[in-house]
Structure of Origin recognition complex subunit 6:
Amino acid sequence: MSNKLVKSISQKLKITSPTVLSKAEELTQMLDVKVGSQALTALNLTGSCPVVMCLELAANTTGKTFNKEEGLKLSGVNKKVYANGLKALESMLDLSTNITIKDLAIQFGCTPATELAMKTLQSYEDEFKSKSGTVMDFTSPMFQATALCAACRKLKLKIDWNKLRELCSIKRSTYDKLVAEMEIHAVKLLETKTVEKQKRTRGLLDEVEKHLKDEDITKKQKKENTQEQGEVDDYEVWKKKILAAAAKAKEQEMNST
C-alpha cells in the first residue's frame, strides 16, 4: 500500500492532521510487512479498505476524530465486515488497548461524569457477579462506553451519543439495553448521594441549632450573674451608708454629753 493512496483517501475523509497521516503511513507499512496481502484477502479486506482502517486506527491512537460513517462508505465493505476487520487489524498491529471511562470522558469532553460512570459500572459489575456465574470482561469498550453514556444522561451532559455508541461495535438494541440497565444503577447512586447530602445538611443544622441554644443559655446565665452581682453591690453600698449614719449619730450623741 502506497503513501499516495493514504493521502488520497485521507483527503476524501478530510483528515489534515500531519500526525494522523504519518501514523497511518506507518501502520500501512507495518501491515505489508507483518500481515501481507493474502491474509488481508482472507479477511475480505482488499482495495482501499485496509487503508481506511489504518487511518481510523491512526486517528484513534493519536486522539483525533474520525468520520466513521464516511470511512465505512469508502471501505467498500458492510458494517459487520468493517468492525470485525478493524478489530483484527488492531490485534495484528499490536494496537489493542483497553480504553477506560476516564479516556472516553476526556475524549468526549464530559469529565464531570467520570466519577458517577465509574461507580455505575462497579455497581453493575457487583450485581452481575452476584446473580450470574458467567465470566465477563468489564474492561471492554462496551461496558466503559455504556456506563459513561448512562452517567451523562442522568447528569444531563450533552455529548456525541452516536460516536460513543460506535466505539462499542455492538448492535444498537444491545447498546440501548445495556445503557438502560446502567441508568438504573446511576439513578440509585444519585439518590443515595442526595440522601447522604441531606443527612449531612441536617446534621450541620442540628449542630448550629445546638450551638445557638448553648450560646443563649450562656448569655442568660451571664445576665443573671450580672444582676445578682448588681444586687450584692447595691446591698453593700446601702450597708455602708447605714453604718456611716449610725457612726455619725453615735459621735454626735457623745459630743453632746
Remarks:
- The chain is about 75% helix and 0% strand.
- The domain at 101-193 is CATH 1.10.472.10 (Cyclin A; domain 1).
